[in-house]
């Protein structure tokens, strides 16, 4: 495959949407030292500015309390208090390291809830609507006033407030219907604006880019405040897709019907597993569908373009995205995620306002706290802070210039994708051979020709491949130790770095020629210094 990069190619300003925000489990985790230490590393090295997490109102944050929880005696339940102190400590930690909160408003405190249904995950947040919307609005107002007093009005006006998480996934994150969510959103958004009209609030925070058109329509028709649209997208998402595309929208999209299909055959799979560890069991329950069926790698790009139109001019925030929606998938620790992140980030950069990769660390408690250093978590880092290929993907993206060259459409298609940039003292070229399956195929050859008025001073390359940026392989060579001491962790980090190396080139008649050979899901960043 041959790529020609003309010297007079037009450019546009690159939207570094992936540096806006990153996801990070649930609120109680934000109180942990190891969590904050890893988050600071992400902020300092990748420049990511905001943090989003679930469960800021979960009962383990103790925001609503009554005396019966302390003294279970008749009449004690009449004595109650609001207490946002733990939330404040968590937000203090975020601000202390130089980041800002992207506040997800949820889930429902038990004493305010209309039912007892909990989310399916480890932290068991209540996912029912409020039993009394007047009480809920008072609660939201009290929360905003707490933030205003603790941080000041001007500071929290730089934050974002998102109502709930993935309400389309009934019985997973929300017990109600679409209309129930819209009502919850309306009361919540109005309570936020009542406290301060300049605060930014939005939703619907759905999975699979769903509900955006109907959400915006609802807000417009009912004069409900909305400052931005938010939604999520995973390439390997097993549940649903964009509404109003290819058929009528269903009110229970992502509900128990989809979940039942998703878990069909689990019993047989569990019986067939010989090693009965928790990790192998979860992998049997939730197999990596991206390695079993043909999943398109352009779903994010197509859906983001649709959502941009559906948003009717509102800013579009993808507050979760990644290659795989399956926690514990072996390939989450491989460079398949790295190559997908590079491709997807570039594919959607003109369709989204900003985005948030899910998530920054395998310090993650949705299913189970696995002791294995590599257990297929979503994180950019392992439980002990070892950077994974996905981290290095964002690191390479951060090194390209501010101007993206607008090349022929064929340049970003086919077996090897290419994107070129200028700035930072030269031209940078990202090459990636992204595939949704980790296939064992021969290397693919590529030739790059770049028009330049003079020979470059230097050409270098950084690679994410089998030998570079591959801590999983290094860990396997160590014997896959469950418990690792500090020296072993630092050695693993050093052995799996992505160094800059000289790359051979030729220069003839105003053209730089570079040869490359990429394995499946390899990523190269080539720097050509003028």
TrEMBL record:
Belongs to the glycosyl hydrolase 39 family. This is Glycosyl hydrolases family 39 N-terminal catalytic domain-containing protein. Transmembrane segments: none annotated. It holds the Pfam family Glyco_hydro_39. It comes from the Bacteria. The keyword NADP does not apply. Residues 2-236, 304-496 form the Glycosyl hydrolases family 39 N-terminal catalytic domain. PROSITE patterns: GLYCOSYL_HYDROL_F39. Keywords: Glycosidase, Hydrolase.
């Amino acid at each position: 495959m041959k790529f020609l990069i003309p010297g007079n190619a037009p450019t546009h300003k690159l939207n570094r949407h992936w540096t806006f925000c990153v996801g990070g489990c649930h609120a109680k985790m934000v109180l942990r030292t190891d969590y904050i230490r890893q988050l600071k590393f992400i902020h300092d090295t990748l420049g990511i500015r905001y943090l989003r997490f679930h469960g800021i109102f979960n009962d383990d944050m103790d925001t609503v309390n009554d005396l019966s929880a302390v003294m279970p005696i008749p009449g004690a339940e009449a004595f109650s208090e609001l207490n946002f102190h733990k939330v404040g400590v968590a937000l203090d930690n975020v601000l202390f390291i130089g980041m800002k909160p992207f506040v997800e408003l949820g889930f429902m405190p038990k004493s305010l809830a209309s039912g007892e249904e909990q989310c399916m995950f480890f932290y068991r947040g209540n996912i029912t609507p409020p039993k009394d919307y007047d009480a809920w609005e008072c609660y939201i107002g009290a929360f905003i006033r707490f933030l205003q007093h603790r941080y000041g009005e001007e500071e929290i006006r730089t934050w974002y407030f998102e109502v709930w998480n993935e309400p389309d996934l009934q019985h997973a994150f929300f017990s109600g219907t679409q209309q129930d969510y819209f009502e919850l959103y309306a009361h919540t958004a109005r309570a936020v604006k009542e406290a301060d009209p300049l605060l930014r609030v939005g939703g619907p925070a759905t999975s699979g880019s769903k509900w955006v058109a109907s959400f915006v329509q609802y807000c417009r028709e009912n004069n409900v405040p909305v400052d931005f649209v938010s939604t999520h997208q995973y390439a390997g998402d097993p549940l649903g897709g964009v509404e109003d595309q290819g058929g009528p929208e269903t009110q229970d999209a992502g509900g128990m019907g989809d979940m039942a299909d998703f878990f069909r055959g689990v019993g047989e799979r569990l019986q067939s597993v010989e090693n009965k560890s928790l990790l192998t069991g979860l992998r049997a329950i939730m197999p990596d569908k991206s390695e079993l069926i043909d999943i398109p790698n352009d779903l994010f790009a197509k859906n983001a373009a649709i959502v941009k139109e559906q948003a009717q001019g509102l800013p579009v925030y993808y507050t979760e995205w990644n290659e795989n929606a399956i926690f514990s998938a072996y390939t989450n620790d491989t460079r398949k995620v790295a190559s997908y992140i590079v491709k997807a980030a570039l594919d959607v950069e003109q369709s989204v306002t900003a985005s948030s990769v899910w998530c920054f660390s395998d310090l993650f408690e949705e299913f189970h706290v696995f002791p294995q250093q590599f257990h297929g978590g979503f994180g950019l880092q392992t439980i002990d802070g070892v950077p994974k290929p996905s981290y290095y993907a964002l690191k390479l993206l951060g090194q390209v210039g501010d101007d993206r060259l607008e090349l022929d459409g064929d340049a970003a298609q086919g077996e090897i994708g290419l994107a070129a940039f200028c700035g930072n003292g030269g031209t940078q070229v990202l090459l990636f051979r992204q595939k949704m399956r980790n296939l064992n195929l021969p290397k693919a050859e590529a030739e790059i020709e770049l028009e330049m008025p003079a020979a470059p001073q230097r050409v270098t390359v950084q690679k994410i491949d089998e030998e570079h940026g591959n801590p999983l392989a290094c860990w396997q060579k160590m014997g896959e130790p469950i418990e690792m001491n500090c020296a072993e962790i630092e050695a693993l980090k050093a052995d799996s770095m992505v160094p800059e190396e000289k790359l051979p080139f030729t220069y003839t008649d105003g053209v730089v020629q570079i040869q490359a050979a990429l394995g499946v899901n390899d990523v190269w960043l080539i720097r050509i210094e003028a």
